[in-house]
Amino acid sequence: MDLREMRYIIELSKTKHMTHAANNLYISQPALYKSIRKIEAELDTTLFYKHGNELLPTDTGKIVIEKAKSILQMASQMEDAVTATKDLKQGEVKLGFTSVVGTMYLPDLLVQFQEKYPGIKLHMFEEGGARLADMTENNELDMSIVLRPVHSEVLNEIPIIHDQIAVCVPKDHPWYSKDFVTTQDLENVPFITFNKHFSVYKLIMERFRAAGIHPLLEFAGADGQFIYKYAMSSKNIAIMPKPMIELYCGNDPIKIIPFSPSFPWELCLIFPKNTFLSSASKALITFIQEYLLTKYY
Predict the structure, then answer these.
(1) To the nearest 5 percent, what fractions of the chain are helix, strand and coil?
(2) DSSP per residue, 13-74
(3) Disulfide engineering: 129 pairs with which of 146, 156, 187, 188, CB 3.0-4.6 Å?
(4) Least trusted range by pLDDT, from 78-82, 104-108, 137-141
(5) Is the pLDDT of residue 175 over 90?
(6) Angle at which helices 279-296 and 59-86 pack, to 10 degrees?
(7) Model-level pTM?
């Protein structure tokens, strides 16, 4: 018995007449009669009996009708849920990001997304880049925003932010007049940056290793604002992503000095390959791309 046939027996139980039920269902009386007999044959039981001019459900018929009503209600609810999800009236997304990314880009972005799609529930997770990649690979997260490159064969990687790592010095620092710095310039020069748990640290150390230079790391921290403030107050060099320096510097008399050759710092959105993306996830990906494109390019 399919959903259409369930509607037939429910309508017949309401009208108690084959002709009236057929009219309400917009089918012929013989077609309805044939369908009822087919259902009874499949169930090997009688669903209706004649009482005067009416067709009334048997005890078995009453049970079948009640179950059919429940099934049709669940089917209707499923259709409503599918429609709501397609129309982005409901859904959920598990998004991961690093603390650096969260601080710089996400507060306004996520608030605006939730204002546009109030029915979509956002579950947010703040972790280190390597941990986020693992969680996304294992489908614990729908997507994450991390530093490029990710080096994963099972994750899609969509670039969303293109910038650079730079040197920052206070106004009275000897390097204030520099227009650029090289990695070799930092030989035997102390500096401050993020600690080993951050991808920025790994990128910086890889650059030093490639240049054959042993870095003089004065201090490595976890809080970007503290790193910046401490470096400027102690008259030290800070090596940080340029957008982060711009976020914290305000009107401070500092100099942001790029590397030569440039030191790329790129963020990407990652999500599993060959995996179904929900409408809510697709909406968030599109929103992130459009928001960042409008705001930063």
Answers:
(1) 50, 25, 25
(2) HHH--HHHHHHHHTS-HHHHHHHHHHHHHHHTS--EEEETTEEEE-HHHHHHHHHHHHHHHH
(3) 146
(4) 78-82
(5) yes
(6) 10
(7) 0.67
| pLDDT value of position 85 | 53
| DSSP-assigned beta bridge partners for residue 161 | 267
- The closest alpha carbon to 167, from 228, 221, 233, belongs to 228
Which of 77-86, 138-147, 187-196, 209-218 is the least confident region? 77-86
Residue 280 identity (one-letter amino acid): A
Superfamily classification of domain 91-160+266-296: Periplasmic binding protein-like II (3.40.190.10)
Which tokens sit at 233? 């107050």
Q: Domain spanning 163-265 has what CATH number?
A: 3.40.190.10
Domain 3-86 shares a fold with domain 91-160+266-296: no
Q: Locate 271 and state its tokens.
A: 């999500």
297 pLDDT band (50/70/90 cuts)?
low
CATH 1.10.10.10 fits 3-86, yes or no: yes
For 169, phi then psi, to 5°, come to: -135, 150
